[in-house]
Amino acid sequence: MNNVILNLIEGVFAFLFLLGLILLVLRYIALPILALILSPILYTLNAFLRIIMFFIIIIKKIVLFLGSLFGVKKQNNIRKDYYKESDYISWEDFMDDDPKDKINDSPYSILGVSPDDSLDTIKQVYRNLSKVYHPDKNKSEIAESEMKKINTAWETIQKEKSLIK
């Protein structure tokens, strides 16, 4: 009887060990390889969908312009746009969630400017980004974290530029 129980316990431990090993292989080998394979495909799909959205917006503007030429009145009860640019999260932003990557971000790359740009140019870019990601305008958690990064980058650049002068 004791041998049966010991064999059962031994079998359970062997099963748990194999399950843990399989999960480790999935986590550290299979999923990163799958992400590497799917990433370019999804990136290309995202670019394609952006192009389609661009053409839809252009067609919409042409239709509205032609409608205004021929006296068609715009209906006020229909929502003007189906989405806001600030609500849209691109595939690059979604994939850029690795904390290791964020350590290497320079303040200039966060704001999307060059170190050679003037402080006035950088300030204008900072203000535009603040309008998009400000918590009063965009309630998402991503916007809140982006706003913190933007503010930190702006403060760092201000200090750096004031030391250079």
From TrEMBL:
Signal peptide interval: none
Keyword Chaperone: yes
Keyword Glycoprotein in record: no
Annotated GO MF terms: misfolded protein binding; protein-folding chaperone binding
Record SMART domains: DnaJ (SM00271)
Protein name as annotated: J domain-containing protein
Domain of life: Bacteria
Keywords assigned: Chaperone, DNA replication, Membrane, Stress response, Transmembrane, Transmembrane helix
InterPro entries per the UniProt record, alphabetical: DnaJ_domain (IPR001623), Hsp70_co-chaperone_J-domain (IPR051948), J_dom_sf (IPR036869)
PROSITE patterns the UniProt entry points to: DNAJ_2
Span of domain J: 106-165
A biological-process GO annotation: ERAD pathway
Transmembrane segments: 12-41, 47-72
Species the sequence originates in: Lactococcus petauri
CDD domains referenced in this protein's UniProt entry, alphabetically: DnaJ
